[in-house]
User: Which sequence fits this backbone?
């Protein structure tokens, strides 16, 4: 399954954080907000690889 953008509800349900926080974390890491990034964020180790 390829990475894709998430809806606000999916991010909040998946991580328990706001969409603003998720976008902030992605922008700090300079990566797009993808499924791979969100899964890593949930584990506490966001991946910087594409």
Assistant:
């Amino acid at each position: 399954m390829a990475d894709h953008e998430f809806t606000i509800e999916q991010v909040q349900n998946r991580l328990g954080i706001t969409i603003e926080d998720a976008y902030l974390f992605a922008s700090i890491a300079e990566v797009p907000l993808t499924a791979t990034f969100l899964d890593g964020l949930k584990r506490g180790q966001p991946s910087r690889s594409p």
About this structure: DSSP finds three helices and no strands in the chain. Residues 9 and 19 are 8 Å apart (CA to CA). Helices lie at 8-15, 19-29, 35-43. The chain has a mean pLDDT of 72.
